[in-house]
Specification:
Blueprint lengths: L32 H15 L16 E6 L4 E8 L11 H14 L7 H5 L2 H14 L3 E5 L2 H12 L5 E5 L4 H10 L2 E5 L4 H9 L6 E6 L11 H10 L3 E5 L14 H4 L8 E5 L9 E5 L1 H10 L1 H4 L6 H16 L2 H19 L11 E7 L1 H13 L2 E6 L9 E6 L6 H17 L2
Helix pairs in contact: 2-12, 4-12, 5-6, 7-8, 13-15
Amino acid sequence: MALSKKDFEGKDVNCDDFTMADFQDFESDDLFEVAEYFYEVVADTFRKKYMVYGQPMMTSPKTEFEVFDWNRNIIRKFLNFCSYNYLGFSYHPEVIKAVQEAIAEFGTGAVSAPLLSGYSGIVRKLEEEIASLKGKDMAVVFPTGYGTNLGILSALLRPGDVAVMDILSHASIYDGVQLAGADIKVFSHNNPSHLEKVLKNLDTKRVIVCVEGVYSMDGDLANLPELIPICKRYGAKILVDEAHATLIFGEKGGGVAEHFGLEDEVDISIGTFSKSFGAIGGFAAGKEKIMTYLRLYSRAYVFSCAMAPHTAAGILKVFEIYKKDKSLRDQLWQNVYYMHGKLQEAGLDIGSTKSQVIPVMAGNDLRLREISKMIQEKGLYTGVVTYPAVSKNKTRLRLSVSAKHTKEQMDECVRILSEVYQSLR
């Protein structure tokens, strides 16, 4: 039942009684009234020291960094298992130097849309590198990863079309389809038989199936070997979001599709530069004709300022380093296996992760709040994933493992988690 003003009048607000989902359908004739009551809930989370979101990072996202702690009102050093900086490239000295040199040459930004004067030669070179990595004809670089899914899907689809999505697909995929006005159908996570049932019951051939290479909340892989043949059987197009998989999976680093030897079967490969590349931006890769169409019809591309040349220069330096030496990726996988083993030895539930994205299941929302508060007090910074981002009883911490984490740091992370989880059994 939707909340309204009467649910708050004359009552002391307790944040433990609410989740963010409760305010989505707040009933009021005043457009801004929901904010007044939501603010009271947020204020209570601060009083109880549950507010761990949005704390300003004061140093670079290394494996230890300084953060302004809301709850203590001071800058503190934390052990960082939160950043997506999987290979440590955001602070790699050669990458930083390449960015600095590009700023001196090109200035601080593109300062125009890509179809006007914002599309630089250095971004064009980056698109060529991405197309080669993905084994596609052409790639288009977007300002953000979120904007990539938003722009691609809203340009491709129209009312009456259908996007069939793994239920755990990223919010940007859902948002792109909704913006297009197309119909959304979901299938159970990684479930080929349910996908087939959904496709079989559709009355249109204008269908795209959307999955993630590595699922951002669970760390498991898309079941592409079983899902793709079903898509082909029913003539559905296939989009794979490789945001958390690019440079990590596949011999070349192309992602989970390459890992399974199925990159040629994927129609559109989506990715981001904000994870393994340590930068910002997104990309889509596919056949030249469809990419040309999308370059001119994706409003999130056409009406956004283009990627800054210095950002592209840093990403190109990452490519250069990565092609010569994949030791950072090798070290990442050593760390991933080490963390999986240590967390399981400690009796912690890490779901079915097969990657550097590691959930540590917490249960319900209230338990997660206590866990997040306690690990912050002990100096551990992780992702805190609550409802409605995940199911009500599947809230979790989300650890992001880096090639740069030491065994001592990983052991300390496990020690803190084990101590906190045991104290709340």
